[in-house]
Amino acid sequence: MNIGIVLDGVLTNLEQFQFDYGSKFYFGEETSLRNPRGYQIEDIFYKHGNALQGVKHKGFWDTYYEYYLSEELPRPFTSEVLKNLKEHGFQIYLFCTRMSPGYKVEPEKIKRLTKLWLIRHGIYFDFLIFSDIISIDLIKKYNIDLFVDHNPKTIFQLSMHIPVVCFHAKYNELARGENVYRVYSWYDFYTKLDEIYQIEFEVTR
Questions:
Q1: Are 93 and 4 in contact (CB under 8 A)?
Q2: Residue 102 has what pLDDT?
Q3: Residue 106 backbone zone (phi > 0: left; psi -120 to 50: alpha; other: beta)
Q4: Counting Cβ atoms within 10 Å, is residue 186 exposed (0-12), middle (13-18) or buried (19+)?
C-alpha cells in the first residue's frame, strides 16, 4: 500500500510554529494572536479577519522561512512510526509544497534544506515529491491509497476519491466526513491504521 504524507503540518507542527514565532514577530505591532483557527499567518494575526494597515504580514516568512526549513523539529515519534510503517510493507511518499514563488529562498536551496532536514532527523521515505499543490491527479499519478494531510481544502477535495487522515489542528476542525479520519499524534495514527484499513480496504497489517 502507498501512503502519501504532506511534510509541513504533518511531519511538523506548522500551527504551533506560526503561533510561537508570529507572536514574537508581531509583538509591538498593535496586533496579537486574534484568530487561533486561522490557517495562514495573516489569518491568525489579522484583526477580525481584516488586514491591519501597516502590519508586515509578508515579512514574517521572509524572516523565518529558512529558519523553519532548517531548525523546526518534527513532531514526536515521526521517524519511529514511519520506520514501523516501512517494516510492515508500506511505501512512503512524502509530498512537499514548499516551492511557492512567494518565498525569497531559492527553490534549489529549499530542496537541499528539506533533504538535509529529513536526513538529520532520520525520517524514512521511499519517494519525495516537490509540488506547489496537492491535487487528485497528482495522487493518482503515484497510486496513493491513503493520504495524510492537514490542509482542510485539500482534505475535502481528496476525500471524495480516497481515504484521508487529517492531522488535527484548530484550523481544520471542520474537515470531517465519511472518508476522513482524524488523528492527534503519530502513535494515534499508528494505532488507528488497522481500523482504517479494515474499513477502507478490508485488510490488516
A1: yes
A2: 65
A3: beta
A4: buried
Collapsing DSSP to helix, strand or coil, 177 comes out as coil
Q: What span, in angstroms and rounded, lies between the C-alpha atoms of 31 and 136?
A: 38
Q: What is the mean pLDDT of residues 6-26?
A: 95
Residue 49 vs residue 181, higher pLDDT = 181
Question: Which grid cell sits at 66?
Answer: 529558512
Reduced to 3 states (helix: H, G, I; strand: E, B; else coil), residue 76 is coil
Mean pLDDT of 155-180: 95
| Mean confidence (pLDDT) of the chain | 89
Show the cell assigned to 187.
Answer: 502513535
Residues 20 and 71: beta-carbon distance below 8 Å: no
Amino acid at 136: I
